[in-house]
Amino acid sequence: MCSRLIIQTSKNSSLKCLERLISNHHQVRSKSVSVASDSKIEEVSEAKETAPPPEVDVNKYIHSNLMLEKNETKPQESSLSFDAIPGPRSLFLISKFWNSIPKLDSNRVIVSFIQNFLSGANFFHNILCWGGNKQFFNKFFRVYGPVVRLHGAFHSDVVLLSRPEHACNIFQHSNPYPIRSCLECIEKYRLDHKNYEQAGLFFTCGTDWKILRDTVSQPLLNGADMYYQRINDICNLFVQRVITNRNKLEEVGDNFDTELYRWYLESLFMITLRTRTGFLDNPQKKETDATAFLSALEATLRTIGKCEYGFHIWKFVETTSWKVLVKNCDAMDTILNEYVDRAVQSMQDKKDQDAAPFLQALIANQKISRSDIITILMDMVLIGTATTTHTIALLLFHLSKNTRCQKKLREEIGRFKDNVSSSDIEQMSYLHACIKEVLRISPPVPILSRVLTSDVKIMDYMIPKDTRILFASHLNSHRDEHFEEANKFKPERWMSSNADEYNIFATMPFGHGPKSCLAKEFAENQIAVLIFKICRKFHIEYDYGDIQSSHELLASPTKPLKFRFIDL
Ligand code: HEM
Predict the structure, then answer these.
(1) Pocket test for ligand 1, best of 510, 520, 525 (most atoms within 8 A of CB)
(2) Which cofactors does this protein require (predicted)?
């Protein structure tokens, strides 16, 4: 599996810069680059080649009822070439020009630079990845059909897909170590700026990724189970803040999204580090670690969008956005290190073997370094905050517009005592249906991305290994062919006896397969407890029109969350 690429350069360029150029030359993020001093550049696969990947039964990721086209499951037979896939002709012509350059120009470093800077498909990939624009995707599919190819310079093409059967085919052909390619600015921050050995769970692949993932998943759930009482307390604190912050009309201000961030971070650090961090402390007069962390996080989430869209100029020049990103990530990194130090110290002082199972599991694993612990926690902050709070905001909105659903949910919730346990939450089937439904209508991560690890045949087209795939899964949520009255908020659909017949590839809010969201259960549980507490206490209204999902890089609600929380 080791791919080797030797590139000669006559220029005496900076090694660091070359590393970047070469690693950017390829989309496959699993590889690292080492630079030889004799001006030869070698790319070597970082994956531990000696350890073959374990056999994985791909069928377990595929829904039993799923209808596959016969020719897509069989070994590849006759097929149309990759070049036959339709796509914008202008990109095709531009790519023809750029693809001819290596033959004319011996200086491939410059070529590599230009590739990254001007690659048409990279540009589109950056815009579309993680969300892009719904109309943009729809237009491509309307004009070119269900399989669209965006030609890129130097063969860096992107294929756009959306149909569930195509997703099934992609995931079925994925190997046990899938690769995704996005959020490159965070990857660069960690590898180049912080000089960490690994970029973190979200970015790594191969056996390194498997070690991180296996170490983290179960202890995260154990931590949540162990600290249920404290999760209750943190939600109660949040409800208390709502009561304090409401105006005379019982309406919260337009900083309610930040309030949700506070709640999420307080819960996350309680569960992972067994530490109270003070995000919900009142009043927040002076600057504390919590307030500094929160403003750095908000700035980071804003800046990630600026860095990721369009051309990635920051790969070569320190742009303003890049500097802002570094400053704020550094600030979070410093505070996170302090939190971890405190948690470790407290574990040692108390000699409490059961404390912080999450942190203990990480520390106990010799293969996990201190920087891995930081990147794991940081991924949970960066990915978990936006997705979890987005889901809660959109669910509150749908409940406010569907008073029948709100009433039904309250009836279910009323059957349980206020201090809720994990088994109570498990029994609340309508609450779970509401969460599933809001994730179907407005998935916080609307686009899934993969880099193909083998050739895959979609319809009659053969798509080669290493091609980037963007899968616009959110489009299916709004198609009546997959969900009756698809645009309506109908939690009941998930409780009917027919619910099993929905195609699992028609809605994938947590992604799919081995690299799907590692915190699905954790997130659903956190959301459930907070919604439980809110609906127990308040009737919810919203007077400012329709809140939708922004479909940006990390989706956010399109309107201020000025809910009315009316005492029951
Ligand atoms: C409603 C809440 C959430 C949604 C909808 C969501 C969705 C997703 C999606 C779509 C992916 C990419 C999956 C793929 O490519 O197949 C992902 C990955 C990931 N999510 Fe979540 N997520 C949520 C909450 C969280 C939370 C709370 C955490 C952390 C505590 C988290 C941690 C991660 C991590 C670490 C990954 C990368 C996993 C890997 O590469 O192995 N997510 N999430």
Answers:
(1) 510
(2) heme
What percentage of residues in the chain have a pLDDT greater than 90?
48
pLDDT of 272 over the 60 cut? yes
Q: Which mutation among 447, 517, 520, 554 tests ligand 1's pocket best, with the greatest number of atoms within 8 A of CB?
A: 517
Ligand 1: centre distance to CA 93 (Å): 37
Report the CATH number that the domain containing residue 393 is assigned in CATH: 1.10.630.10
Pair 120, 151: CB distance under 8 Å:
yes
> How many beta carbons lie within 10 A of that of residue 32, not counting itself?
16
Answer whether 256's CB lies under 8 Å from 561's CB: yes
385 belongs to a structural domain: yes
Confirm whether the ipTM is greater than 0.90.
yes
- Quick check: CB of 211 below 6 Å from ligand 1? no
The answer to whether the CB of 509 is under 6 A from ligand 1 is: yes
In this structure, is residue 29 part of a structural domain? no
Domain that holds residue 218: 206-567
On whether residue 7 sits in a domain, the answer given is no
Q: Is the CB of 29 under 6 A from ligand 1?
A: no
Query: What global pTM score does this model have?
Result: 0.83
Cβ neighbours of residue 423 closer than 8 Å, sequence gap 6 or more: none
pLDDT at 70 > cutoff 80: no
Tell me if the bond preceding 219 is cis, omega within 30° of 0: no
pLDDT at 59: 37
Give binding residues as ranges: 517
Q: How many domains does the chain have?
A: 1
Q: Are strands 158-161 and 468-472 parallel, antiparallel or unpaired?
A: parallel
Q: Report whether pLDDT(44) > 90.
A: no
The protein residue whose alpha carbon is closest to atom 43 in ligand 1 is: 517
For residue 92, being part of any structural domain is answered with no
Tell me, what amino acid is at 11?
Answer: K
